[in-house]
Amino acid sequence: MNLRRLALAVAAPVGAFAFSVGLSSLVLLAVGTNPMEAWTEMLSYGTRLETFVETGNRATQLYLAGIAVAIGFRMNLFNIGVEGQYVLAALLAASAGAAVNLPPVLHVALIMAVAMTVGSAFAGISGYLKVARGVHEVISTIMLNAVALAMVGFLLRSWLLDDTDATLNMKTPEIPSSGHFPKINGLVETFTREIGRGRELWGFLLVAIVIGVLYHVFLNHTRAGYDLRATGLNPFAAEAAGVDPSSTVVRTMLLSGAVAGLIGLPEVLGDAHKYDLGFTRGLGFAGIAVALVGRNHPGGVAVAAVFFGWLDSAAPILDVVGDTPREIVSILQGVVVLSAVVAYEVTNRVRRAAEARDAAAARAGAPA
What we know:
Elements: H1 2-30, H2 35-46, H3 49-73, H4 82-99, H5 104-133, H6 137-157, H7 185-191, H8 204-221, H9 223-233, H10 235-240, H11 245-260, H12 265-272, H13 283-293, H14 298-314, H15 317-320, H16 328-365
Helix pairs in contact: 1-16, 2-14, 3-8, 3-11, 3-13, 3-14, 4-5, 4-6, 4-13, 5-6, 5-11, 8-9, 9-11, 13-14, 13-16
């Protein structure tokens, strides 16, 4: 029984990946590119230490985005507003960090607290609208995304703009060195070799790992996490058992937004030390794909984040070598998500059918 369950759990992602590679190979053939040469080039470039460092940096942000989305998914809440929450949180956190000069630990803690508060408060609006006015969270979070991005544009052009900057790059003032998050190149180089080409592994990777552990503990070892899971599985049964659905909805959105507020901090604290026009966007929407492929499990989300991060890091070589279009990576990522959803549903149906047969067999063999 355990072996069969394990086989079904492994079959879904492996099948989805194989189907995605096959379909992407057909697309490459259609545009006149040799699929084997393209995949070989990506694999060769993607297995370098420097590429792994880039993968770790991108996977850190994707993992936080995936966890933020997964928290809502576990309760059947679709927090589509992660994009707006993390962008607005990053801007205000960077501005707050630039406005003060504190001891290193306190400085970083303040920036993280501001980011989590902003993300949580903005997500909480959708939670309140759902329980107080019956507004579906998909509608409210999509609308709030537009509001957040408009606020970012206005604030960056006016109140939070660095007036001393003479370039055309609108940005906030830089965060003092006490607010920088340390790199962990030394830790990696202890077990490998010196990292070249100026690549630096952001120390916020360790924070993302802690967030994943806390997410697991919260869901499986706390009363609030049990209420969240129970409400997601059957809200009517959960309410009959004494769970307040309204407070659970608001609490879930607040928690999801708090994690979303951290998504931009690896870049702000570990690399740019400011918010500017080059700030990475789109991670909130990518987090939806990561959470779906990872099945909302902290381990599964981690695997999905590393996979998507590796594709993003290895893709640039396609623009340099050969005639392979870099967009093939976007096609691969999209097909992975779609095929993973289908594969998981197929394996779930197979599992339920097998469980039904086992139950029928056990009932038939039971003594009268």
